[in-house]
Write a structure and sequence with these properties.
The protein is built from two helices and eight strands. It has helices spanning 2-13, 18-69; strands at residues 73-77, 93-98, 112-117, 125-128, 135-137, 148-153, 162-166, 172-175. A hairpin with a 5-residue loop joins strand 7 and strand 8 (172-175).
Length: 187
Amino acid sequence: MDITASIAELAHSRGFSLIELISVLAIGLLLLSVGMPNLRQFSAGNLQQSEINTLVTHFHLARSEAVKQATRVVLCPSDDSEVCDGSFNWSGGFIIFADANSNRHRDREEPLIRIYQSDFESQVSINSTYSRRRLTYQPDGSSPGSNVTITFCNPDDIIAPKAIIISNSGRPRISERRPDGSPLSCS
């Protein structure tokens, strides 16, 4: 009888009561509800930073190709991966090409240096200032014209916007403010 009593006692001591199970589930749901917005914000921030890093890398590539090939190199938004689409929206992707005839438009005989198509077009909005639809690098690495600001925004506004600002010298820098010091705007 000692063996049966100890087996019954062991089986009874290993389970959870309904109250304990409901308490654990309630605490788990509470922690999940507190942590979920932070997870969305963390994920959106990582995605934004990834897209910023990708574009900065391509600015450096275009600049170095202009110097290396001793020709003008153009970066511009492109939805079809062939020609510049003339918009200010870089979210869908962009192309880099050597502009042999200096017309700032890609002709069929001008080679593409790089094509980038974003998989995150609906999750990150990327727009340049209205004065610059494309960026041209000269053979000396400079980018003449006005400075260009490319702003990265989250469509849900769960993170603050960031921007890449390219100076006339052709160097990109990342900022959380406009060149004049005012806050960035996504509208």
